[in-house]
Write a structure and sequence with these properties.
The chain has 18 helices and ten strands. The chain is of the alpha/beta class. The protein folds into two domains: 30 residues; 407 residues, no CATH class. The strands form four sheets. A four-stranded parallel β-sheet has the order 4-3-5-8. Strands 1-2 form a two-stranded antiparallel sheet. β9 and β10 form a beta hairpin. α2 runs parallel beside α12, α3 runs parallel beside α18 and α6 crosses α14. The chain is globular and about 65 Å long. The protein starts with 5 loop residues before the first helix and ends in a 5-residue tail after the last helix.
Length: 452
């Protein structure tokens, strides 16, 4: 009799699972051809100085599972969608001459996942909080205000947002906001409808060879593994490599698993998530003509795209564009991955991550070039300004930061610096956790709204 080894059993099981997955996918495609234009999908309810690792947001598990409608562009005929993209006009960017008395206060930060976006949102949140500005935030989420993949529309202010400062909850037509820094999928027309004018739009992108590594750890894509596989592949790097061996298969398995109370949520995070966050449905990610047109659209609409790998350089450009002071863009890194959670990843594996996330890689490369073109236009003073900024950052770090605290909440582990004891209010605002500052923002806006 032929002896069957355990690894052969695993292989046979995987083959069978792939066949079943293909059958489910074919059946799903048949169903999708009969769906209305707005397709019901499972989506979420709300969802350092140079040399210090940056990570993005820690998120609280949702209280209950719910289905949310996602506005899908894939229901629009391809030719119509391409015409819309090609017809996107370059928006006027009348950046003022900064004289120290006219800082710009209206800003949308399209918050991407695992890109250092929590640190950037903290910078903007601090600016708005100390000036009593109004934030577009989810009134049901005191923890972080995220909107996640909830589709935005004309009823969003009434149904979802906390009223602006000084505005009654009944005065819906007056719901206009200065700042938006929460996770939300980019939809320019919808966001314009509730922001004050003029508003600047920015986002941040990260090399997917690093972003996907962080996402893999944070969102625990290895939940798609079989129990035996988790025993065989015991390190973070070996699990990441194993996932990429059969990435499409494991991503399909994630479609059937829960995350934050939502079935299939991690399917969105597991490939080209940065482009998806910026509004392009996964359906179009294999269509190079559409991808190129959409990148041109983003180039036309976004005032600045920051790059994680050049964080300080990006912040200098943001400071210049918004006419802010250096103090306004000082920072201490937030929500970092604990040092022990990161293995050494070989460059060959990073190349595989870029290949799997090819659309994000193309997006990042395009706006990385744009960033350096902006730096060139800044002029010869850029390098000296950058050196001064980094000196300020180091001074803040030495004055404001205590030890590193590793925290856990649910499935998540993350680290933040403690505020140095006795360092003062400014240090507290810079170095406190993102959740602490957000709670202050939420409380200020909730308490100062009009009761009439």
């Amino acid at each position: 009799m032929c002896e069957v080894r355990p690894n052969q059993l695993i292989f046979l099981f995987l083959v069978g699972a792939v066949v079943l997955s293909c059958l489910f996918e074919r059946f799903g495609l048949m169903l999708r051809t009969m769906t209305p234009m707005h397709v019901a999908q499972r989506t979420p309810q709300a969802k350092g100085p140079t040399g210090r690792r940056l990570e993005s947001v820690h998120r609280r598990p949702a209280l209950a599972s719910r289905t949310v409608l996602v506005r899908s562009r894939s229901a629009i005929p391809r030719s119509q969608f391409l015409n819309e993209l090609q017809g996107a006009a370059t928006l006027a960017r009348d950046h003022p001459t900064c004289d120290g008395s006219n800082p710009q206060v209206n800003l949308v930060f399209v918050k991407t996942h695992k890109t250092g976006s929590t640190t950037l949102s903290h910078i903007i949140n601090r600016f708005g909080y100390t000036r009593g500005l109004s934030f577009a935030i989810n009134k049901k989420s005191v923890h972080n205000g995220h909107l996640g993949y909830i589709p935005l529309g004309k009823d969003s202010p009434r149904e979802t947002f906390l009223p602006p400062i000084g505005v009654s909850k009944y005065a819906i037509t007056k719901f206009k906001y200065n700042l938006m820094t929460v996770h939300v999928r980019y939809d320019r027309a919808a966001i314009d409808s509730f922001m004050k004018s003029p508003t600047r739009y920015v986002t941040i992108l990260r090399d997917p060879g690093f972003q996907f590594e962080s996402a893999f750890s944070h969102f625990q894509f290895d939940d798609a593994f079989l129990t035996q596989e988790k025993k065989v592949y015991s390190t973070a790097t070996s699990r990441l490599a194993r996932f990429l061996d059969a990435a499409s298969f494991y991503r399909e398995r994630l479609k059937h698993l829960n995350w934050e109370g939502q079935k299939g949520l991690r399917w969105y995070y597991a490939k080209n998530n940065q482009m998806y966050d910026l509004g392009l449905d996964h359906t179009y990610h294999t269509d190079q003509e559409v991808v190129d047109a959409y990148i041109r659209k983003l180039e036309a609409e976004l005032d600045l795209v920051l790059i994680t790998e050049y964080y300080d350089e990006s912040l200098l450009l943001l400071k210049s564009m918004m006419c802010w002071d250096t103090d306004d863009v000082l920072y201490v890194a937030k929500n970092m991955r604990p040092p022990t959670s990161a293995d050494t990843v070989p460059e060959s594996l990073r190349a595989r991550m870029r290949k799997w996330n090819a659309v994000d890689a193309k997006l990042h490369a395009h706006f990385n070039r744009s960033l350096w073109e902006r730096i060139e236009r800044y002029g010869p003073a850029f390098q000296s300004d950058l050196a001064k900024f980094r000196e300020e950052l180091e001074s803040v770090f030495q004055s404001c930061v205590g030890d590193l605290k590793i925290s856990s909440q649910g499935r998540f582990r993350y680290s933040n610096y403690r505020v140095r004891a006795g360092s003062g209010v400014n240090c507290t605002l810079i170095a406190e956790s993102k959740s602490s500052l957000f709670s202050s923002i939420w409380g200020q806006q909730a308490q100062r709204r009009s009761i009439n």
